Amino acid sequence: MAEASGAAASAAPAEPAPAPGRRSRITPQREAELYAAVLDLLREVGYDALTMDAVAARTRSSKATLYRQWGGKAELVATAIRHSKPGSIADVDTGSLRGDLHALVTREDDCGMEQNSALMRGLAMAMHTHPDLLRAFREQLIEPETAEFHRVLQRAVDRGEVRADNPALRYVVHMMIGAFATRAIIDDQPPTQAFLRSYLDAVVLPALGVPT
Q: Rounded CA gap, 104 and 90, in Å?
C-alpha cells in the first residue's frame, strides 16, 4: 500500500514552471508598474471588460500571484487608483484652510484631472452593478481619504478659522466631490485648477465662514 502511494506520488505531474520572461516577485517598483498598467487598461477597455488575464498578460505576471496579492479585480483596481493619488491629503499644511484647499486642488495638473475625471465617471457607473467594486472603493479610497480630509478641517477648527459647530463641516467632502464630478455634466468641460479654486472661494470657504 505504502509502495503504491509512493509510486502514485512520484507519478504525479510536477508543478508547471513559470513561463520564460514572467516575473513573480512583487517589489515596490513592480507594484508601481502593475498599477500603471491597470489604469491604462481601464482607460482602454473599461472596468467590465478588464480581466485579470489581461492584467497578467500586460504585466507579464502570474494570475495566481495577482489573486494572492489583491484577492480580485475590484481590490486591484481600487488599490491602483489609491496608488495614483499624489500623497496623503493630511500632509498638506500651509497654515491656513484656504491655502490647504488651494494646494490640494493644484496637486494634479489640468491634463491629469481630465483623465482622472473620465476614468472615475466610468468607475462610478460600474459601482452601481458591482457591489464588490463599491466596497473596495469605500475601504481603499473613500473612508481613508475622508478621514484625511477631516484632519485638514480639524486643523482649521483648532486654529480658530472655522467654528466647531458650523453645519457645513460635514458636507465639505460632498461639495468637493460634487464640483469635480458634475463639471463635465453641467458645463460639458473637464474640471480644472482654475475652476476648482474659484469654486472653493465662491462656495466652500464662505459656507465655512472663512474669508476669501
A: 10
Quick count: other Cβ atoms within 10 Å of Cβ 120?
16
How do residues 60-104 score in pLDDT, each as one tens digit?
A: 988 998 999 999 999 999 999 999 888 789 899 999 999 999 999
Exposure on the CB side of residue 92, measured as CA atoms within 13 A? 23
pTM greater than 0.90: no
Do residues 77 and 42 touch, judged by C-beta distance below 8 A? yes
- How far is the C-alpha of 190 from the C-alpha of 181, rounded, in Å? 9
Of the candidates 197, 198, 207, 113, which has an alpha carbon nearest to the alpha carbon of residue 156?
Answer: 207
CB atoms within 10 A of CB 64: 11
* Helices marked H in 60-142: 63-70, 73-84, 97-105, 110-129, 131-137
| Pick from 171, 170, 81: nearest CA to 127 | 81
Q: Which three cell numbers stand for residue 186?
A: 453641467
pLDDT tens for 23-65 read 445 788 888 999 999 999 999 999 999 999 999 999 998 899 8
For the record, the C-alpha cell of 10 comes out as 512520484
- Residue 47 near residue 123, CB atoms below 8 Å: yes
Sign of CA dihedral 185, 187, 188, 192: negative
